[in-house]
Amino acid sequence: MSQGETPRKANGVEERAGIHSANFHFPEGFLWGASTSAHQVEGGNTLNDWHDWEQAGRVPEKSGRAADHWNRFRSDFDLARSLGHNAHRFSLEWSRIEPADGVWNPEAIAHYREVLEALRERGIEPVVTLFHYTMPRWMAARGGWESPDMEKRFARYVRKVVSELGPLARWWITLNEPMVQMYKGWLLGQWPPGRSDWGAAVRVLRHMMRAHVIAYHHIHDLRPDAMVSIAKHALAFSPCDPRRWRDRLSVRMRSYVFNHLILDGLHTGMLHVPGLFWERLPAGRTLDFIGVNYYTRDFVHNTGLDLPGWMGGSCGFDHRLQVGKLNDLGWEVYPEGLAKFLHEYSRFKLPIVITENGVPAADDDDRWTFLFMHLWQVARAIADGVPVVGYLHWSLLDNFEWADGYRARFGLIEVDYETMERRIRRSALKYADIIRRNEL
Ligand code: FCB
After folding, report:
1. Is the shortest distance between the CB of 177 and ligand 1 below 6 Å?
2. Which atom of ligand 1 is nearest to the CA of 176?
3. In whole angstroms, what is the distance from residue 274 CA to residue 298 CA?
4. pLDDT confidence of residue 15
5. 412 phi and psi, to 5 degrees?
6. Quick check: is 177 catalytic?
7. Lower CB count within 10 Å: N or C terminus of the chain?
8. How does DSSP assign 109-127, residue by residue?
9. Going by CATH, does the domain composed of 31-437 fall within 3.20.20.80?
């Protein structure tokens, strides 16, 4: 076929010069890019609870300069642009914007305005996260998410930010992974504030959901065409012993609570744990799209006949069902899980954006395999009619992986933490090729 001639196309199958290729075409306007969060890449964030947690020696490494993205965002976005990215998710650091209760820092707001402008100038659509785990120190001292004041304080912050920056961003994520934060901070005690208290955890979750709802309305009030969601961590579960009915039931319980409860609540305006409690949230449906963060699968076994027992415990590895390889942090590579969630979340009949998906891999070939296998699942889901409109890889840069520090290498771009030099990885170039062709 001569150049310029349109290839014959049927169901994504093209015929070119007698060669059949079954390449999958992503929808026009698909959002392609990567994600970061403030505390993990900016460096110099000293006004939040994570900083205090690090100083107290609760994690092996301190975030320190991180990837120095605060100073290097323009050249980092040049790299993203050179890789064809047309979207980028990042978070605002509340503790920089409001360093003390009710006190705004105009320099921090100006900085984030420059960040947004830098993205726009490069033709990159911003996806802005308002809260990615880190709590201003002053708010943490008042009880953070446990405090009934939190909703009001969060709403005031959101209103300020959106009135300043709203014209520059249409896509907003209110909260990153509320369930994970509640679980690690208030049940496992591994993250700030280091608690282990079911009652407090339930209160935290209620406050988070109410805060989202209130923020949703403020954002829409200031920017009516906004697209607002949360970034929902979706974690696949399988029974440790598939023959044991108690394990199978624990998988169902855990999966409902962990993967569905919040989205169902925000979609229906009702927070409902069957048999435990329900509550009407402040007002109606508050999701314009579904943001999904997906990484791995856990194996679950029942540990007793009370509520924690039915939620079960998650086990070590070496399961019969497991065929995937483990990544550098020991998480199973399980691409099928992504397709499963995309199908399940299609019930909301809302656009879906994969707001995070990635792998800690010192060996970049492992990153490419991971990326390709997951994109293949995305393609399959779209072919089945699931309305996925974007894929944002975690992460653009190597960064501070919370309690796991700097050994986890998640970046499409390698960071040399001594010199702060950036090196584009081969996986990033292969990803760029998929983006350029918009097909797999
Ligand atoms: C997600 C977090 C993100 C990053 C990745 C690896 O759960 O949202 O900040 O740590 O995991």
Report:
1. yes
2. 8
3. 23
4. 46
5. -70, -25
6. yes
7. N
8. HHHHHHHHHHHHHTT-EEE
9. yes
Nearest to 261 by CA among 338, 206, 308, 322: 206
CB of residue 402 inside a 6 A radius of ligand 1: yes
Angle in degrees, CA 16, 20, 22, rounded to 5: 115
Catalytic residue among 42, 98, 177, 332: 177
Q: Which residues pair with 20 in a beta bridge?
A: 15
Q: How far away, in angstroms, is 395 Cα from ligand 1 center?
A: 9
228, two tokens: 């607002």
pLDDT score, position 173: 99
At 231 the three-state DSSP class reads: strand
* Order of strands, sheet of 8-10, starting from the edge strand that comes earlier in the sequence: 8-10, 13-16, 19-21
Q: Which residues contact 242 (CB under 8 A, 6 or more apart)?
A: 248, 320, 321
**Best probe residue, ligand 1, of 402, 406, 412 (max atoms within 8 Å of C-beta):** 402
Tokens 């006949």 belong to residue: 305
Both structure tokens of 383 = 């072919």
User: Which CA distances in Å does 339 have to 86, 378, 410?
Assistant: 23, 6, 21
Instruction: Kindly give the number of the ligand 1 atom that is closest to the alpha carbon of 37.
Output: 9
The per-residue pLDDT for 22 is: 67
The answer to whether the beta carbons of residues 251 and 300 sit under 8 Å apart is yes
Is-cis flag, bond preceding 224, omega within 30? no
With 0-12 / 13-18 / 19 or more C-beta atoms within 10 angstroms meaning exposed / middle / buried, residue 436 is exposed
Strand segments, DSSP code E, in 97-162 are 125-131
CB environment 298-315: b (16+ within 10 A), e (fewer): bbbbbeeeeeeebbbbee
In terms of residues, how long is the chain? Answer: 440
Entry pTM = 0.94
The reply to whether omega before 395 is within 30° of 0 (cis) is yes
Amino acid residing at 19: I
Strand (E) or helix (H) holding 272: strand 270-273
Classify residue 61 by burial, with Cβ atoms within 10 Å: 0-12, 13-18, 19+: middle
Which residues of the chain have a pLDDT value below 70? 1-22, 273-277, 316-318, 320-322
**CA 252 to ligand 1 centroid distance, Å:** 24
Nearest to 337, CA basis, from 375, 377, 366: 377
pLDDT at 8: 43
Q: How confident is the model at residue 14, as a pLDDT?
A: 47
Question: In 366-386, which positions are buried (b, 16+ CB within 10 angstroms) versus exposed (e)?
Answer: bbbbbbeebbebbbbbbeeeb
At residue 11, the pLDDT reads 42
